[in-house]
Design goal:
- The radius of gyration is 28 Å and the shape is elongated.
- It folds into four domains: 2-97, no CATH class; 101-180 and 192-198, no CATH class; 204-293; 295-353, no CATH class.
- The protein has helices at 2-10, 12-32, 39-63, 66-97, 193-203, and strands spanning 35-37, 101-106, 109-118, 120-127, 133-135, 140-144, 164-168, 174-177, 205-209, 215-224, 227-235, 243-244, 250-253, 257-260, 266-270, 281-285, 293-294, 296-297, 309-310, 315-317, 320-328, 336-342, 349-352.
- By secondary structure, the chain is α+β, with helices and mostly antiparallel strands.
Length: 353
């Protein structure tokens, strides 16, 4: 054993290369069993590889001739110079690559959660295996729009809730969205594919029923270029026949929400481009969905923050149409401050209550 250890000490750079190959081989073996390393394995390996490379080069430097030593000195100078010039960019890149990891209990099961918190935050949940390994396919995703933080951190977790949750089966097919309660993670039993398809079809349609057998529904016709194409359909015979109101469709970004408060008045909230929230807004119709306009939300002077975020679609309270909005200030606790806005013109203009 001592002889082996002595040989390892003499060839540290070679040992480092062997370790890299070992980690890569195990990675692909784990992949065959739908598993992957836990984050700490990557962090420790990265540190060991850096240390092993530096120590190994120093070891070679002491043994080799002058020509080799000059090459090492030159390379070290170049690498140091590059780091000094681009150190901010390098640190920024490392910050982007950092993914907080949490072991959590969801739906009475243990998962490993990875938090991706650049601009909008996405949390991916993987099967928990042990302290070293986890599943390599996300069984659930949570979306936190306009939040760029580790939302599972114990100190702030209670201040945030997901805007949308998506569940997957083993084949990476979407099982359900928006916190559907009959979710089963498919690790223990198979799912009836026909029932899954029915669930998906139902999720693509939301409808409202009014007096005189009038029904209005919004149909999600699929996505393109980051948007989903919505058509508004109206029935005057209790749903036996529908007529499309907006033939060209309404393009809304992923995560949209909608409501019709009467056969003619309705709202669609578009959260905007994922990541930066541009092109977001509350759109309203007063002709049953044939045309939509962008609502005007009057910004009060007393609100310090520059941006208002809409919590959800409008709602009725005490016979008044209201809208809940909030601001975000990372220096406050809690970060979100909520406000209520009201309208007197069916949603065209909104003012602080």
């Amino acid at each position: 054993m001592k002889k082996i250890l002595n040989k390892l000490k003499k060839h540290i750079l070679l040992d480092t290369i062997i370790y890299i190959l070992f980690i890569i081989i195990i990675y692909f073996i784990l992949k065959l069993f739908n598993m992957q390393y836990r984050n700490w394995i990557y962090y420790v390996s990265f540190a060991l590889i850096i240390i092993g490379t530096i120590v190994g080069i120093i070891q070679l430097y002491r043994r080799k001739g002058k020509k080799f030593k000059k090459t090492i000195i030159t390379l070290t100078f170049i690498i140091t110079l590059i780091f000094l010039i681009f150190w901010q960019h390098i640190l920024f890149l490392l910050a982007l690559l950092y993914t907080p990891e949490h072991v959590v209990i969801k739906n009475d099961k243990k998962y490993v959660a990875h938090v991706y918190s650049w601009l909008d935050t996405t949390v991916k949940y993987y099967k928990y295996v042990n302290a070293f390994f986890m599943g390599n396919k996300a069984v659930m995703k949570e979306y936190y729009y306009n939040v760029g933080r580790d939302v599972l951190d114990k100190e702030i977790a209670e201040n945030y809730s997901p805007s949308e949750t998506v569940y997957y089966d083993k084949e990476r097919e979407v099982i359900a969205e928006n916190n559907v309660t009959n979710y089963n993670d498919k690790e223990d039993e198979k799912t009836d594919k026909e029932q899954l398809q029915t669930d998906k079809d139902n999720q693509n349609v939301i409808s409202w029923e009014f007096d005189n057998n009038i029904k209005v529904k919004i149909v999600n016709n699929g996505a393109w270029s980051g948007k989903e194409i919505l058509t508004i359909e109206k029935s005057i015979d209790g749903g036996l026949n529908y007529e499309i109101q907006n033939v060209s469709g309404f393009d809304a970004h992923y995560g949209w929400s909608a409501i019709f408060i009467s056969p003619n008045v309705g709202f669609i909230y578009d959260p905007g481009v994922p990541g930066d929230g541009t092109n977001k807004g509350l759109y309203f119709t007063t002709d049953g969905g044939k045309t939509f306009e962008l609502a005007n939300i009057i910004y009060p002077d007393e609100i310090e923050e520059e941006t208002l975020f809409i919590e959800d679609i409008p709602y009725y309270e005490n016979n008044q149409l209201l809208l809940k909005v909030y601001t975000i200030n990372h220096s406050k606790v809690p970060e979100k401050t909520y406000y209520e806005f009201y309208t007197n013109d069916n949603g065209k203009t909104w003012m602080q209550k």
